Amino acid sequence: MPDLETFKLSKELVQERVTDNIVVVTFGNYAFMDFILTWVKHLTDMGVENLLVGAMDTKLLEALYWKGVPAFDMGSHMSTVDVGWGSPTFHKMGREKVVLIDSILPYGFELLMCDTDMVWLKNPLPYIARFPEADVLTSTDQVVPTVTDDRLDLWQQVGAAYNIGIFHWRATESAKKLAREWKEMLLADDKIWDQNGFNELVHRQLGPSVDDDSGLVYAYDGNLKLGLLPASIFCSGHTYFVQSMFQHLRLEAYAVHTTFQYAGTEGKRHRLREGKVFYDPPEYYNPPGGLLTFKPSIPKNLLLDGEHTIDTHFTLVNYQMKQIRTALAVASVLNRTLVMPPLWCRLDRLWFGHPGILPGSLTRQPFVCPLDHVFEINVMLKEMANEEFGPGINIREYSLFENPSMPQEVKKSWLDVHLCQEGSPGCQVNSTSQSGVLKLPKHSTEETLKTAFSKFKDVKVIQFSSMQDAFDRFTDKTREEQFRNRVKRYVGIWCCVETHTPGHIYYDMYWDEKPGWKAAPPNSTKDDHPPW
What we know:
Elements: H1 11-15, E1 22-28, H2 33-45, E2 51-55, H3 58-66, E3 71-73, H4 88-104, E4 110-114, E5 118-120, H5 125-129, E6 136-140, E7 162-169, H6 173-188, H7 194-202, E8 206-209, E9 217-219, E10 224-228, E11 234-235, H8 237-241, H9 245-248, E12 255-257, H10 264-274, E13 291-294, H11 300-304, H12 310-334, E14 337-339, E15 343-345, E16 367-369, H13 377-380, H14 386-389, E17 395-396, H15 408-412, E18 414-420, E19 437-441, H16 446-453, E20 461-464, H17 477-488, E21 493-494, E22 505-506
Parallel strand pairs: 1-2, 1-4, 2-3, 6-10, 11-12, 13-14, 13-20, 14-17, 18-19, 18-20
Antiparallel strand pairs: 4-7, 5-12, 6-7, 8-9, 9-10, 15-16, 21-22
GO molecular function: arabinosyltransferase activity
GO cellular component, one term: Golgi apparatus
Protein name: Nucleotide-diphospho-sugar transferase domain-containing protein
């Protein structure tokens, strides 16, 4: 590997990557290596080669170099562990972004700056080229559409924050002046979040429109021409994963940024996987021990009948949760990886009180909600002490089998399992019918499951026709206790009712064992704790 000096940011280094005077840049540390490779692969697959990755530690720099990804050293030697939102290190990362913009713009190149937790779905460069007058184009957190086609969002109607996870800068005097002032502002006060600082500066003056038709607006010092990328196609985690706004409007999405989500980095990764846009190695699709999946078969009345209320939402989610609980137990007994089912919700989840869905948004009810709306994915994937929580249970996203990266040989090695009533004709553990279907008695014990599946260890995928009453409980009391301790922690909260503080309601994995269980927020902060 060449000397670190050769990776220093310079005009010459950037010049090597530039096409049509533009370079697409992201940066991060080794903890985000898989996000960065996903980001790179999406761009190169669509023929965009004019990209650069800033490496915040030498571990990432070396890894990218050996993979042939153009990178430069950001010299900050940050820790390679994940950086929590809002932590001091997170704020330092924020400083890195503005320092980077302020460094690259004087080279005279256009810069499309991205966070690593976003993915390009369509080449954005032709879109950006439609607005040659713009000094800065930025994405936003807007959740209500202001346009129904692919024009820029109407600046007069966008009330949400401008989001600096995706923004484009031209090397104009106005843009350079903004970058310089933004950098000075952040370096002078380490309490300011970089995005808030950016919003404060560009809103210093907002208006009038630059002209009648471009959608650009004079901002910041009155000279900067700003455009707001439409949130319907430069998507947030809400407009993409919850609303599917681009589909409702029959548009093609250019990008998705994993905002508006829960469960930290694991939640982001899982959402991108659910959307089939995250790149995983082949072994991810063929885990040791094989996969377990099931048909959730939700009764129509739970899904569609009646008003969309807190009660009907929880009735629907609880029905699914109970099946998932059984599936987790079966996966644990058989030592298989559970493919989570698509999860249906009637209500959206946010950080504040709301009427069920955001007024003016295109969220349709019910909708397939991201797993992190209900499940604490970060907890599910965390190492937990064996003696207290039993063995870990691996999971995969519901769209796994639809992913083009899923190998055919995994899909071909498949066993269907039909639950039957014990004692009914043909309901024996040891018989598979001609069609390759295994009959399994309902309320099977741990032993029954182990016996029934002992000769199918090499089958890659086992699919249950239902998980309703498939399994009773673990034979060993300690094992049952460990399992309960584990899965109780797997579910989070729904948020939030508008009329009560605290306004969130805890999901309860064992709701069905509590007579008269009702979905209600804690009475007071004293009662505000999970149900375990």
